[in-house]
Amino acid sequence: MINRVRGTQDTLPARFTDKTDAQIECWSLIEQTAREASRRYGFEEIRTPVIERTELFERGIGAETDVNKEMYTFEDRDGERVSLRPEQTASVVRAYIEHGMFNQPGLTKLFYIGPQFRRERPQKGRYRQFGQIGVEVLGQSDDPAIEAEVIEMLDWYLRQLRISGTELLVNSIGDENCRPAYIEKLKEAIRERLPQLCGSCNQRYEKNPLRVLDCKVESCQPYLNELPAITDSLCDPCREHFQSFTSMLDQRNIAYTLTPRLVRGLDYYTRTAFEIIGNQLGAQNTIVGGGRYDGLSQMLGGPAAKGFGFAFGIERMIMSLPNDAAQSLKQSPDVFVASIGENARNHSFALTRRLREAGFGAVVDLEGRKLKKSLAVANSLAARYALIIGDNEIESGSYVLRNMSSGDQLNLSESDLIATLRK
Ligand code: HAM
């Protein structure tokens, strides 16, 4: 037997699994609600390829980031290095540049739904292929109103899905004017503590000192809490931007926690960074991550453009749903059509076709089963009704319609049948 690749998941109809994050109904709910949020807030959908040139991510998300090191990269037959995308912001910005979207007036507001790939160690909420839904706002403006509106949309989304117990963490990580001086200050403070800090902090100190702040190792925490906070080193424009952003959240009554140690794992971020964490996810508790990335377009060889966006992991969002959230999306047929005998079987195909033309979800027995077995299938599919056709029914023009939950049966003509199914 050939099993699926480690860290990947099959998404099944709910009746085949009790793991909610692997149920297709939950995925549909998450996607439908995201489409509705996008419609209300004026985002347009974009789809980009799953494979991109490796260089896009090396330049975009940074060669020294964890995400870069976790990429599935291979050489194509013509020697070109390509990677399965580990995230989609770099792809969306590439498409923005490649198709000259910046030539249109106003902001470009895009959303996407799709799989991403990272070769991480699998655990609860962490997969090697996972779904993301994200939005990106691109254009000439870096007004904090963009950030506040995007977060307002997320707030709507979480409320719509009845997801509770989440916390919005916000920070500003400065820009190219104030961050270099802060990083020097930070390195100096870390240097004194290197012997007490873990191996990964020591490595990050050399290559990506900001990421030291993100270390989750218990014994490092007391030392990390003493490190200087970036918010104390922001230049005036960055500080004003951040103040204006948080006051816009206040105006919208959106609660947030100022989190000076929040730095994010991708190099393209500038100024505002944020995450939404959940309380039901264990170690992998970040549901949403996002921020501003004003330099990314130029880093990728495009025009100067500002950007802000976020992405969330679909599996993690699903794990945060209330248990009954996707109940109404379970796909079950309105009617299962069973027949007794060869003549009735042919009749059942024609009648089923008419039911489908009338708009019903109808499944007909294609296997020539005995009635009892057919009813067992109808039951397993959670069909609302079973329709039973034998020679007598054809002759009298009156069919047996069985309500699968109550077991009640009615004899009905075709037009009464349709009227009953419509109810
Ligand atoms: P990220 O923080 O790397 O940001 O990922 C965003 C979300 O994707 C995470 O919060 C998590 O829910 C989900 N996620 C990440 N890795 C995994 C995994 N291995 N298994 C399951 N879920 C995962 C980005 O990807 C940025 N592109 C977000 C962004 C958009 N920033 C600006 N615009």
Layout of SSEs?
Layout: H1 24-41, E1 44-45, E2 51-53, H2 54-60, H3 66-69, E3 73-75, E4 81-84, H4 89-98, E5 108-117, E6 129-139, H5 144-160, E7 167-172, H6 179-193, H7 199-207, H8 221-226, H9 236-251, E8 257-258, E9 270-277, E10 286-292, H10 296-299, E11 306-313, H11 314-319, E12 335-339, H12 342-357, E13 362-364, H13 371-380, E14 385-389, H14 391-396, E15 399-403, E16 409-412, H15 414-422
Parallel strand pairs: 1-5, 7-8, 12-13, 12-14
Antiparallel strand pairs: 2-4, 3-4, 5-6, 6-11, 7-9, 9-10, 10-11, 14-15, 15-16
The chain binds histidyl-adenosine monophosphate.
Describe the structure.
With 423 residues, the chain is an alpha+beta fold. It has 15 helices and 16 strands. The strands form three sheets. An eight-stranded mixed β-sheet has the order 1-5-6-11-10-9-7-8, with helices on both faces. The chain starts with 23 loop residues before the first helix and ends with a helix. The model has no long low-confidence stretch (mean pLDDT 95). Bound molecules: histidyl-adenosine monophosphate. Histidyl-adenosine monophosphate (HAM) binds at residues 67, 87-89, 118, 120, 125-127, 130, 132, 134, 136, 265-266, 286-291, 309-313, 315-316.
